[in-house]
Design brief:
It is a single chain. The chain has 201 residues and is an alpha+beta fold. The protein is 23% helix and 22% strand. The chain contains four helices and seven strands; from the N terminus they run βαβαβββαββα. The strands form two sheets. The protein has a four-stranded mixed sheet with strand order 2-7-6-5, with helices on both faces. A three-stranded antiparallel sheet has the order 1-4-3, with no helix packed on it. Strand 6 and strand 7 form a beta hairpin. Helix 2 packs across helix 4. 23% of the residues are buried.
Amino acid sequence: MTPLRRLSDVEAAFARTNALMHGTTQVTTHVTLRGDLDPEHFRSGAEGWAAELPLLSLRIEERPDGLWFTTGPGPRPEQLRHDPPGTPESADDVPCGELNDVLETGGPLWRLRLVRDPGAGASHLYFTRNHAISDGHSTGAVVRALLDALFAPTDGVSVHDVRTLPPNGDALTYRPPARPDAPVREFVPRPDPLPFAAHRP
């Protein structure tokens, strides 16, 4: 596997915490769809999604100078799962099972599961991942790309470009580049802190 770049401090903190906690910091996002999603359509769409998003090919490798992102083969068969219709699991059992089925350190950093419920006219997708590749802020764009791959593409408008590898977060300044023609912002003093339970404008 070819090393791509070192993990940022935040990514490394997520990865190390997940390893130390034996996978208990992984997260699952649940999306409910109308209709009965055909397993073959699900598999082909999800394979296209995984091939299109380089983020989903990432693995984490420990090297002498720290943790590095590398690329791995994928998706592996165990990363794309589907249950037969009418699987006797409650709505609470499925997310618990997903969270307790640990994504192993050094292996694939995500998994996608389809649970069909034709009786209710619905299908459920469970996207489980290591926080090092997808935080709560960017997951919406990753799931939107999945829905585009499964169904007709949407307008594609997103604040995140999930079709490129994420930048090293340690290098981000969270400020736009300064423009010479931009007016100088006037200093505004910080307001007094509000007590947690206060109800004030």
